[in-house]
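Two folds, back to back.
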Amino acid sequence: MMNFEDFEEKTLSRENIFKGKVIDVKYDTVALPGDLGLAKRELIFHNGGVAVLAITPEQKMILVRQFRKALEKVIYEIPAGKLEQGEHSDPESAMLRELEEETGMTTKSVKKISEFYTAPGFCNEKIYLYKADNLTKVDKPRPHDDDEVLERHEVTLAEAKALIQNGEISDAKTILAIQYWELETHA
């Protein structure tokens, strides 16, 4: 079995290409393992995010429908958002904030499902995925972000799977959450 050193690409130089509000873009020159030479790596650094499989007392999942500029289309997704500075130590609180902002709901019943990287070939974004049930309505919920236009939907597991099949659910975090829900339901 190969060791970490057999795979590691050592960074020789890093060029800062872009520093934004959500991402930083870097261009690295790396030494490949052994005598394989040098390579260039275009990298995106992201603060990370949270997402929630929110299940209503009626056993429906809450989805939000919104336009995604990078895709130039409207898709359904589970409630989610980016981690703000300082939230890495408590992603569960960040998830509860996003749940309230995007759905007007909250809960004391939270289970961490997974942590995963969205595109590890070029990006370090990590999403913390939770399940929330026993949801209760918040009297005066925090408003969603000023630049978000959301439409809330509640769907059954069968309806969620149909949305995957017809392409209206096409992002990995939502598909992963639905798969988890199906496995949990049929366990």
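---
second:
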Amino acid sequence: MDIIQWIASAVLLLFGGYIAVMNWAVFVNNHVLKKQWASAIPFIGGFVLTMGIVLLPITGSWKYAWIPLLLDWGSVPVVIASLACWLSQPGERNTDKD
């Protein structure tokens, strides 16, 4: 059973890692290099990396499964950045008219 967990975990970690690296490449190209590039894939990289950590057959590894959600640009950081941009824009936020 351990070998199946190792293989599944490795596949998820590699795929999630690839998505996370591409999300950071999008950030660097769009915001640092000021090139017009693609958009980040929201939450996929962080969730897949989290599942890869959860499946690791290492005692206690699941305790660190939340870390990819903080490190992947397409997960929590993009939500915080989007919220900050939205809050910094002037204008009326409530579009409900009575």
